[in-house]
Specification:
353 residues, 2 domains, elongated, 15 helices, mainly alpha
């Protein structure tokens, strides 16, 4: 949980001083444990809790915190050290440049069982969910595999049912959270035609079998032209990702561009969808996929990678993401004494032998 929105009357609390790191408890969430004020900026405060989570609160909700004393179980040690480190300029500067490794660490903390764990599969894939939600990928993919399959689209094209084919596209995408409502309205306003239907079919199913990048670029660009004002990055790429989730990727322009720049400082793409830029986004998606696999988190498909990017790069996650290096630094320091003691014990055993 990255932030907490509540409506109690705000009451200001004292800020921790360098000489004394105060401890707090959230008055409504005692199960989070004690907390220390790690940073304060831009009308927000970041509190590190002893349950391992850093939570961000907007100004106006500080009154939910009440003074606390160390519980005596050692849980206050880490949060106190975090608060002290946060006051040093060099540590704060180091947290301002997140990396893909920081994203993966944030993901590990939020979803320790990864993409195949119950938390992720229920929230994002819709596994064992009582009701289908727009963010649930598995039911959306099942619907797309039927309504936008090559056979289904060929039948509609043969019957010259251009409007019905476009309706299927609108309804499949409209049942997801991949395309904003405003972009879907633009798609609904597009005049159904044979050329539009054929461009969508060609992009999704490549009837010619030509696997060259140049041919893929032409198919992509043709569909963008046919869609006109409706041809946004999210809409165009969501189509491919829904039908071929292991091959194609859905692009949310802001977060995917940021991801690209994190991997390659000179990363640049056009605001208008272009085939050559789409290939760049696919390379970014593949790079993130491979790093996740290397870290022990194997995505089911590129929609898992898409959701990973959004979960770790969305505005609500920014403050926590920036704090990851500092949190890891403190945790590593806490582990050093135990590691040294263990190494000493092993040395003594070897000497005795």
């Amino acid at each position: 949980m990255l932030s907490q929105a509540v409506t109690e009357t705000p009451v200001q609390v004292p800020t921790a001083t360098p000489s004394e790191t105060r401890l707090y408890r959230h008055s409504k969430r005692h199960q989070w444990g004690v907390a220390a004020l790690v940073w304060e900026r831009d009308g927000k405060r970041g509190y590190q809790f002893s349950d391992g989570k850093l939570r961000v609160f907007k100004e106006g909700f500080y009154g939910l915190f009440e003074s606390a004393v160390a519980p005596g179980d050692g849980s206050a040690k880490t949060v106190r050290r975090l608060a002290r480190l946060a006051r040093t300029d060099d540590v704060m500067e180091a947290t301002r440049l997140p990396t893909l490794r920081d994203q993966i660490e944030l993901f590990r903390r939020e979803y320790p069982s990864g993409f195949h764990g119950d938390t992720w599969t229920k929230k994002k894939r819709g596994v064992k969910a009582r009701k289908r939600l727009k963010r649930h990928r598995d039911p959306a993919l099942a619907e797309a595999s039927k309504r936008l399959s090559a056979a289904a689209m060929r039948d509609l094209i043969a019957a010259e049912k251009w409007a019905m084919l476009l309706d299927d596209v609108v309804e499949v995408l409209g049942a997801t959270d991949l395309v904003p409502r405003g972009q879907l309205k633009k798609l609904q306003a597009v005049e159904p035609s044979k050329s539009l239907a054929m461009s969508i079919y060609s992009w999704l199913h490549n009837p010619s079998g030509d696997q060259s990048d140049e041919h893929a670029d032409r198919r992509f660009n043709r569909m963008v032209r046919e869609l006109g004002p409706a041809g946004s990055w999210q809409l165009v790429t969501a189509l491919g990702a829904m039908v071929h989730p292991a091959q194609h990727c859905c692009v949310r322009l802001r977060s995917h561009t940021l991801q690209g720049k994190m991997l390659l400082s000179e990363f640049r793409v056009s605001k208008r969808p272009q085939g050559k830029d789409y290939r760049r986004f696919r390379h970014v998606t593949r790079a993130v996929h491979d790093e996740l696999v290397e870290a022990g988190f194997v995505p089911r498909d590129n929609l898992d990678v898409y959701d990973f990017m959004w979960e770790t790069l969305r505005p609500a996650a920014r403050d926590t993401l920036l704090a990851i290096p500092m949190i890891k630094s403190v945790e590593n320091k806490d582990e050093e004494p135990a590691a040294k003691a263990e190494a000493k014990t092993e040395t003594e055993k070897s000497s005795a032998a």
